Amino acid sequence: MATSEQLAGELARFRALVDAGALVDGAGLLGVEMELHLVDPDGRPAPRNAEVLGGLADRGVGADVQRELARFNVEANLPPVALDAAPLSGVRRMLDEVRAAVAAADPPTTAVAVGILPTLEVGHLAAANISDRPRYHALDARIMGLRGGAIRVDIDGTDAGGEHLDVTLDTILLEAAATSLQIHLDLPADGYAATWNTAQAVAGLQVALAANSPLVLGHRLWHESRIPVFERIIDLRSDADRAAGVPPRVWFGADWIAHPADPFAENLARFPPLLDDADADPDAEDARPDALTGLRLHNGTVWRWNRPVYALLPAGPTLRIENRVLSAPPTAADAAADVALFLGLVAGLRGRGDELTARLPFAAAEAGFRTAARHGLGASLPWPVGFAVDRDAAGAAPDADGLAPHAPADLVRGGLLDVAAAGLSSLGVADAEAGPALDTIAARIAAGRNGATWQLDALAAEERTHDRPEALRRLVRRYRDLQDAGEPVHTWPVP
């Protein structure tokens, strides 16, 4: 395991690489990963990722599909696509292809993209369902050891109109059940800090618009319950740490950054190493001075919602943002819309990043992120009055910081959708690509329906005639059928 001194040395080397201009510019590429739940015909978890991967081996799938921490999950890593080469329709097509290929690889197993599978039960979180990969077993053993062999998950959803979950688990597999859509954005070497700050500022809006995990272990919780689930599972703090204000390893961050090395420095200052070097993935092993293997391994065990990723390319080292705030979406069309909004907002606002961070306190951005997770489309998000939105979009007078609460719909309609359109154009994304994707966001706002609201409405409808377990199974089967049909979630009927 790398020592603190070794990690500090690698951090210093990274800072020197940045300051010397040794990082290469990103190649204008978009990368997307999506985690999927494997389900049986009745809509329950199917722990068959080894069988699925075996069936995929000879099918020539364009994406790289890998097993995830739980045997009932896989992850699809799409090949990077140029931003000026139909990236959104490419993402949509490939996500649909992956789901179809998984279904054909191991019938009758199918793949469902959803933040947390509603039919998941405590019994599915047994050690036997950890995937057969040494790193996963090491991670489970290390975290469970630090937690004394038991993890209590206590999430109160009553203030968001839900219920209260209080359960004790003996593995970390509930973390695996919180599946996501991850967006990787290559960046100019000199624009990282402004882009990362902008991504943090809009994270709450992303979550509110795309929430898709309201049901956990049979309970109605937050609209984006994936966020508190992840934070509570990967929480290695002692009582003394909590009293001292030490954050969990899944965290939003400490402050706006001024240098690309700042997030790595924050990680080292707050979190001790978690895994041994032997637990690193083979592709992280490299003897070059700029490999920074220890720093990269440590960075991979701090789960930031916007994670910095240092990588080695043939042309040299580079840095990108991995945006991790989104649940796996209802359809590939919704995924393309969510990707478009993130890219457009980051590109459209980062040129005013200094003004944004001066007017939006970091604590307010984090508070908005958590409010969005609780309430989804019904959240009230703090935003600087008149910054990139119509001054009349807010429904209340500004506070002492010049912030006012805004409904997500008001932020989108008040100007941020136009910002996103301009941002996508600046990245070279054609209007024929950007327009339909952003139209989906506008229609989602107009309908007041995302994945979370559909699930909650569908559950309420099913529970009129069925008990909770049967209602959840029926919900998942209906969700899967609608996902197969491919129309975005704002058009979905409630059963």
Structure description:
The protein has 495 residues and is of the alpha+beta class. Helix content is 43%, strand content 16%. It is built from 18 helices and 16 strands. It has helices spanning 4-19, 49-56, 87-105, 134-146, 173-176, 192-201, 203-210, 226-233, 239-243, 262-270, 293-299, 332-349, 353-359, 362-375, 408-426, 431-447, 451-462, 468-485, and strands spanning 29-39, 64-67, 73-77, 81-82, 110-112, 151-156, 164-169, 180-186, 215-216, 219-220, 250-251, 303-304, 306-313, 316-327, 381-384, 403-406. The strands form 5 sheets. Strands 1, 2, 3, 4, 5, 8, 13 and 14 form an 8-stranded antiparallel beta sheet that branches. It starts with a helix and ends in a 10-residue tail after the last helix. 51% of the residues are buried.
**Number of DSSP helical runs:** 18
Category by helix and strand content: alpha+beta
Rg computed from alpha carbons, rounded to a whole number of angstroms: 21 Å
The count of β-strands is: 16
Average of per-residue pLDDT values: 93
